[in-house]
C-alpha cells in the first residue's frame, strides 16, 4: 500500500479547491453561433452501471445526491444506449462515433491480445486536439494493452489509469492471489496503473481496488484546475462498478445495499467533487458534462452487480438490459434544467455533437453517429436518430430498433435467467439460449416480455428491410454476410 500513499500525495497536490479570486469569466457557447470561448467537455463513463442504478433512475438502498443534482440541473435520457454490451467494443464506439464492428473491434480485449483500436481512427480527443483543446484521459482504456496503443497515442495529452478491466488480474474472488495452476486467471499479469506509457504502480488487493475512484477523482480535479484557462476535454472512465468492487474506508458500510451501495455512494461523491471544482473555478457554465455507462450490469455477480431497472437481461446481451444506459447531460444555459429526453440516442452520437459545439471537423472516414444537439436544446419534434442496430460477438446482427419498435433477430444469447446469481463477489452460473425472431413495442413493454410480431407483420417487414441494408454495409456473421464498409483494427 506504500505506493498508493505516494500516488495519492502526488495526485492530490494542487487539487485543494481554490476561492473565486482571480477567476476568468467564461460565457457559455451559444448554439448555432460562435461564442467568446469554446466549451469544455467532460465525459464520465462508468463501467457496468445498470439503467436502474443511479437514484434518479430508481436505484434503491443508497443515495446519489450529486448525480441527482446533475439530472435536476440538466437533461436525463430514458432511451440512451451503449453501442454494444461489452467493454472494448463499447469504448471504441464512444470515442470514434462508429459501430465497433465497423472498426474490427469486438468483445473485451485481453492483456495479451494482439489487436487494438487502429491509431488512424479519429477519436474525440484527436478531433478536439486539432482545434486547440488540451485533452486528458483518466481510468480504464481497454483498446490496446501496451504502447503504442495506449491513450497518449490517440489524441490524449495525458493519461492515468488501467489499460484494461480491473478483473483482469491473478486474484481470486476472495481477494487472495491465485495459486491453482488450472485456474485460467492465473495467466493474467499483475494489474498495472499507468501514467502515459509507464507503469507507476500495481493493483494487487481489494483494498487497492478501493483506492481507484479516489485516485481518478483527485486527478480529474487537478486536471480541471490546471487547464482552467484553456479549452479542455476530459474523458474519465471509472473502473467501478465493474467487479471486483471495493470502496475506500470513508464509504465502506455506509449504505443499506452492502458493498455495491457503498461503491455507488463513492462514485456519486466523485461526481460531486468534479462539479464543485468546475463551479469554484468558474467553469461550470461553459462545460458540457456527460454521465453514462459502457454497458449494463454483470448480473451473475448478484449483490455485487447493479440493476437494469426492470429491463431484460444484462451485460453481454443485446436485450435492453445490456445496452440501455443511464445518461445525464449538463450544461447550464444550453441544456434546459430538469428536462427528460425520451428520444433515441447512442454513445455514437457524442462525437458529432461535440464536434458541432466545439467547432471541430468530422472525421473523413465514415462514422455512424449523428448530431443530437437538437435534443440537448429540447427543440420541439427533434428526432435526429431513428434507428439503432444491435450487433454483438464478432459481427452478429441480433436486432434493430426504429422508434418504439424493436425486432429481435434469431441468434444465440447468454442468459442470466437459468441460474441463481452469485453472492459476496462470487459469480453464479452462465447459460446460453436460442433466441427466436420477435417484435417488441418498447413504449409499452420495455422489459421485452410480449412478442407482438404476429399482430404487426407490416412492421416486421419494414424492420427487416433495415436489417438487409445493414447486412450489406456492415455484414452479419449469423447470415454469413461479409462487411463491405469495415476497416481494419491495429494488429501487432
Please tell me about this protein's structure.
The chain is α/β, with parallel strands linked by helices and 492 residues long. It folds into two domains: 35-385, Alkaline Phosphatase, subunit A (3-Layer(aba) Sandwich); 390-491, Arylsulfatase, C-terminal domain (2-Layer Sandwich). It is 23% helix and 19% strand. The protein is built from eleven helices and 19 strands. The protein has helices at 2-12, 65-72, 87-96, 124-129, 206-209, 212-226, 258-280, 320-323, 350-358, 373-376, 457-474; strands at 40-46, 75-81, 115-116, 134-139, 158-161, 191-195, 198-203, 232-237, 287-293, 324-330, 339-341, 345-346, 387-392, 396-402, 405-408, 411-415, 431-435, 438-441, 490-491. The strands form four sheets. Strands 1, 2, 4, 5, 6, 7, 8, 9, 10, 11 and 12 form an eleven-stranded mixed sheet that branches. It has a four-stranded antiparallel sheet with strand order 13-14-15-18, covered by helices on one side. Helix 1 (2-12) packs parallel to helix 6 (212-226) and helix 6 (212-226) packs parallel to helix 7.
Summarize the structure.
With 492 residues, the protein is of the alpha/beta class. The chain has two domains: 35-385, Alkaline Phosphatase, subunit A (3-Layer(aba) Sandwich), CATH 3.40.720.10; 390-491, Arylsulfatase, C-terminal domain (2-Layer Sandwich).
